[in-house]
Amino acid sequence: MNNSMIDLIGNTPLIKLKYPSELTGCNIYGKAEFMNPGGSVKDRAALGIIQDAEEKKLIEPGGTVVEGTFGNTGIALTMINNARGYKTIIVMPEAASLEKRDILRNLGAELRIVEVKPYKDPGNYQHISRRLAEELQAKGEGSVIWANQFDNTANYQFHAKTTAKEIYEQLDGKVDGFTCAIGTGGTLGGTSVGLKELNPNIKVACTDPQGATMYRYFKDSVLEVTGDPSETEGIGQARVTKNVEACLIDMAYHITDKEAFELLYKLIKTEGLFLGTSCGVNIAGAIQMAKEMGPGKNIVTILCDDAYKYFSKMFNKDFLKSKNLPIPDWI
Ligand code: PMP
């Protein structure tokens, strides 16, 4: 018996990915985070952040949670906040998919769509959300928190406590490698910390999309962008957030959008899995890791969300053509 949707967060299944495993001679597994009630891995970060704020008595019933997000964290926060009796204000860059906007509005979040600006610009969505929270706090009308998923370490700590432990138990401790991409760094940071605590020999790789800096950061300790901006969503970081600082990394891979999208379309056919854009990067990274580590290894990655949120990109011929991305032969 579950008392609320919050009880459904986590404990997601692990699924063996047939094509990537056959290709490499390793067992490549995906953690099915799209099965969380909010439909993504961000349910965990959102719950970690809200529970932490409640424990610290920073938020009370009727209070407000403000956050800057590309969508999934906003969806997760709004659902949890609704169940807990908090209001949600979301600041989202206009580059996020239209599907995510619709979900947020229909969940009852107050939504502010802003222009895409780099982090160093005060008009960046993260800064706008912080200032908005500060303004509301200054009014003194009820409790207000800024979730601050990028630098709030409750994010990675929740993954260390849950995601890492679940993966380890699901494979009876037989984990050789783990990899995923970085948005906030919460998933990779927490899972790397949690897994290495259980067994320090487990290798962890950062898999970075094009247009981000984490590949060069972990490879050569320089914050330098590799490649053009990516059309994947929720990943691709340009700075060392507090959650990135937590990451314990042994290897790094760089994946182009072309590779990621090709793999997503292939996996629809080979696995019957209808996965979101960041999964293409993650699974391509797991394949690279399997090739580097050699056959017979058990390698795990994250299936962050599903393709339903990306119809306007993944199955839109004009969009794919304009971005020079592969077009699946059935659309
Ligand atoms: N994939 C998707 C679809 C996401 O929304 C996010 C969250 N930004 C990530 C991957 C990356 O997760 P994290 O923030 O834990 O690095």
List the helices and strands and how they pair.
Elements: E1 14-16, H1 18-24, E2 27-32, H2 42-55, E3 64-68, H3 72-84, E4 87-93, H4 98-107, E5 110-114, H5 125-139, E6 144-146, H6 154-161, H7 163-170, E7 177-180, H8 186-198, E8 203-209, H9 214-220, H10 242-245, E9 251-255, H11 257-271, H12 277-293, E10 298-303, H13 311-314, H14 317-322
Parallel strand pairs: 2-10, 3-4, 3-6, 4-5, 7-8, 7-10, 8-9
Antiparallel strand pairs: 1-2
Helix pairs in contact: 1-12, 2-3, 2-6, 3-4, 6-8, 7-8, 11-12
The chain binds 4'-deoxy-4'-aminopyridoxal-5'-phosphate.
What are the salient characteristics of this protein?
single chain, 331 residues, alpha/beta, six-stranded mixed β-sheet, globular, binds 4'-deoxy-4'-aminopyridoxal-5'-phosphate
DSSP helical segment count: 14
Major sheet? 6 strands, mixed
β-sheet strand percentage: 15-25%
Helix/strand order: EHEHEHEHEHEHHEHEHHEHHEHH
Shape: globular
**Distance N to C terminus:** 42 Å
- Regions with little confidence, pLDDT below 50 for 5+ residues: none
Q: Write out the distinct hetero groups bound to the structure.
A: 4'-deoxy-4'-aminopyridoxal-5'-phosphate
